[in-house]
Write a structure and sequence with these properties.
By secondary structure, the protein is of the alpha+beta class. It has one domain: RutC-like (60s Ribosomal Protein L30, Chain: A). The protein has two helices and six strands. Strands 1-2-3-6-4-5 form a six-stranded mixed sheet, with helices on one face. Strand 1 and strand 2 form a beta hairpin. Helix 1 packs parallel to helix 2. The longest helix has 18 residues. The chain is globular and about 40 Å long.
């Protein structure tokens, strides 16, 4: 059975299937902040969504990070490194990509165990 949460006309915020939760790409709610501020917002959203289904960041199976500009790589990593659970760091990919809005600096997609 597939359980979808926050279903919209275009996409759901997350889906749960066979003990795995798939999050939609998370972006900053306040895109006026710098990369560290936007990264903090995005990771807080990930925490909130995972908690809704009984999961947390220690159960992340894979993270995909999209940066509008790789100049922000170090700033994003500073926030990421403080956020991840030591010894539970997930596999991760980080790429530069054109994001849907020009003021977004980062988008993160997470898959986690429930």
């Amino acid at each position: 059975m597939i359980k979808r949460l926050e279903i919209g006309t275009r996409m759901s915020e997350m889906a749960v299937h066979n003990g795995t939760v798939y999050l939609a790409g998370q972006v900053a709610t306040d895109p006026t902040e710098d990369i560290q501020g936007q990264t903090s917002q995005v990771l807080a959203a990930v925490d909130t969504l995972l908690a809704r289904v009984g999961s947390d960041k220690s159960k992340i199976l894979m993270a995909q990070i999209f940066l509008a500009d790789l100049v922000d790589f170090a700033g994003m990593n500073a926030v990421w490194d403080a956020w991840v659970v030591p010894g539970q760091t997930p596999p991760r990919a980080t790429v530069q990509a054109a994001l849907a809005r020009p003021d977004w600096k980062i988008e993160v997609v997470v898959t986690a165990a429930v």
